[in-house]
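Bit of a strange request maybe. I'm writing a small parser for structure token strings and I need a real example to test against, not something I typed by hand. Could someone generate the tokens for this chain?
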Amino acid sequence: MGFGQFKSVGGRSGKPMVAMADINVTPMVDVMLVLLVIFIIAAPLLNHAIRLELPQAESSALPQDLKTITLSFDPEGKLFWDAELVTLEQIGPRFELSAKQKPQPEILLRADKSTRYESIAQVMSAAQAHGLHKIGFATEAKTAASSAKSALQATSQLSSQSPITNLKK
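Reply from user aminoacidic:
Good idea to test on real output. This should exercise your parser:
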């Protein structure tokens, strides 16, 4: 086994038994590998972020010192209040409580670009009905590569719409 065993030098010949000085590290390595696998599997579950594909726009970042309520819409149209799944019926009382706070919090709408506008409009209407008027939209910052790509796409669309004929014959 591991500790406390004796190694027989002479067997039954009467020679003294010597204590085994080796430590078997195989069980310890097995336990460490099992823990590593558990943490690798559990780590993504601890992340509460909602994966969205935000539209791109040029704007400045909001100051983060104010109280902000983040409402996120995933591509299927599910609504999240600060990473907690809620329904349209549940946000009314929450808006009521938020409207009573001084200063009133800002509402930041994060919607996937494939989200139906109808669901966003319903949330905006509910917020305004409860007295919350500071509503903003989250977007991703445009990068030079994405703006060049969109310009190239626009150019290719224009050239495909109005073909240029060769005037020289």
